[in-house]
Structures are given as structure tokens and as C-alpha cells.
# Entry
Amino acid sequence: MIGCLGKLTQLGDSNEDGSLCRYIQSRRLPWVIDMHTCKILLVLLLFAGQANAVDSTTVAFGSCLRQWKPAPILDSVRSLAPDAFIFAGDNVYTDTGLFRFKREPERIAKAYQQLAESSDYRALKDSTQLFATWDDHDYGRNNAGAEYQWKEEAKQQFMRFFDIPEDSPVRRRPGIYAAHYLGDDDQRIQILLLDTRTFRSPLEYGEPDQQCPRSRLVATQDGSTTVLGDAQWRWLSDQLKQPAALRLIVSSIQLIPDGHCYEKWGNFPHERQRLIQLIRDSGAKHTIIISGDRHLGEISRLPSVGKSFPLYEVTASGLNSAGAGKGEHNPYRVTTDNVRVDHFGSVRFIQGEPPTVELTLHDIEGKVIQRYLIDYSSWEPLSSTAG
# Structure
């Protein structure tokens, strides 16, 4: 016992030579104890905290960043101290604001340059591991797909800005789709960054109607059209066979919500069903879809069918440009309303008892707006909180 106390005292001495205990004693509080006992209690408290600590990995994400506006929300991302941050598309706007008057493709580089000069962005880059894919406005033009003539120039600017390594497979093939990993063994997280622009077939438009009078977008009936293209589909199928405890599939456009009037996988119903079925057929049960584009935030759940498992999607769209979607119906949304203030999202993989996955939407100060907790084993919801 004496030897054990001696060891604890030595460890207590490592706390800045007992300075904390000396500070406590200096306060002359009625419950203050002698230095020796204080050190022992501090070490026991330290050990107790370590024993109760829960391992977790956090990935934050967001989209729709207007580079000419301040982005203080990025400071809140840094305060969260995530293991990584994902730019999920529309990371700059090359075709709106004053940039729409500039020449293509030169305006793409100028848009990235403006973001590079942002102190908010530089601070995030210096402190956090970054991953990225693109959507239409950083690709180069609103709603653009495979037909966009400057897509190769856009790719070069994307790779330069996000420091894509020289030996990356992204540099050796068309498009920017990529796979990354965080953690090891039972906490290995796979991040699959889809490219929904380079290979996407043209959108289909109809006559203005009461449902979508402005966008006129309709779901195509042409089964030969594609969102990802053959090569990316094969790559995705192979990636879903790789071992991972949790998978984050990053799609710039929404997958599960399919009733709104804007870009979505639902514009290509056969491709939407193909992706859902591929995830389920691959047995990739622990998969979260991350999306952007909509200038709103929401968490959606696609129920299981038969012996399959549910799918979850977190849309975080509006790092400094949220505000759309008031009154919009989404039967898959897990809360009654969407988020229309500037926000970012996070997925936290918690190795507790039981292990859980926490989906959160944070406001500009990092506070919780919505939180949704999933039991890892059953992949069914545990709780939902709307702040």
C-alpha cells in the first residue's frame, strides 16, 4: 500500500510540481487537505477520467460557401476540433455574383484565389485535415454536367486548390472521385467522395407546372442516362467491398429526398435506385450519405425494406448562404422542419457501450440545432433532438 501511494505521489508531482495543489491550498478553503493527499486525489481523478473516456472520431462537413462573404462559421468548425472536414460542393461560386461577368474558365481560378485569401479558410486549412468534392457552381456553371466544356480546366483548379497529391489516382483518370480513410481496425472510417458532375447526363426539363414552375426539372424516363458514369460505378462497387466500420458517401446532391424541384438523384430515378440497391446489396450497413447543394440542412432516413437496413442522409448546405426550403415537404426527414440558418454538419462515431453514431447540425456558433443518435449494432435510431 505504501509503495502504491508513493507511486501516486510521484505522478502527482508531475502536475507542474504540485502547483495545482499549492493553488488550492492558497485559497484557504475549509475543505482543503494536505499536499500529499491532494496529489493522490488528483491522480485518482485523472485515472478515473481516463477510464471513463470514450473513443470517438468526428468528421465535420459543409457546402455552399460564397467566397466573397465572411465565413466565421469556419472558426466554429475549428473549435469542434474534428478529425477531418469535408467540403461537400459549391465550395466556391464561379458563376454568380460579380463572377458571372468574368470570362470562363479564368473565373474559376479567381474564385478559388478569393477563398484562399480568406483568413477563416486559411485558419481551418492550417488546423484540420480537409477533403473535398465539387458541385455545379465550383465545377463551373449552374446545373452543369458532362457537357460542360471547361471541366478539365475546372479539375486542374480543384486539384491545385485542395493540394491533391501528385501520385493520387485522381490525377490519372477523368473526374475527381476519390476514397480516403480515417482510423484503424474497429474505428476505420471510409470516406467516398463522389463526382456527380463530370459524367452526368443532361438534365431533362418539362413545361412549367404548379409543382415546379421555376426549375421545370422533371425525372427522366431514359434508362440510358447516368449520374456517375460506368467507370465511377465500377469503382464505387469495388470500394464498398473494402473493410470499414463506418462509411461516409459524399454526394453533392441529395439522394434520399426526391420530391423537391431542384437537382437531386431523383432526376434520374433509375440511378437513385441503383445507388440505394448497391449499398444494400454490398452489405454496407453502416453507411451515412452526406449531401449539400440545397441551402438548407436536414437529416433524412430511408426505412428498411424486408431484410435490408435503413439509410441515413445528412444535408448540410449553407456555410454562409442558407435560407432556402421554408415549408418544403420531405417525408423522409426525421424532424418536423429543416434548417434555414447558416450551419455545418458532423458525424461522430462513438465507441461506447453501446457504440453509436451521432448525426448533428450545428449553427454558426457551433451550437446544436438538430442531433440524431443511431445505435451502431441495430442501425436503428435511439433519439432525436431539435435545438
User: Anything to note?
Assistant: The longest strand covers residues 368-375. Confidence is low (pLDDT under 50) at residues 1-17, 27-31, 47-52.
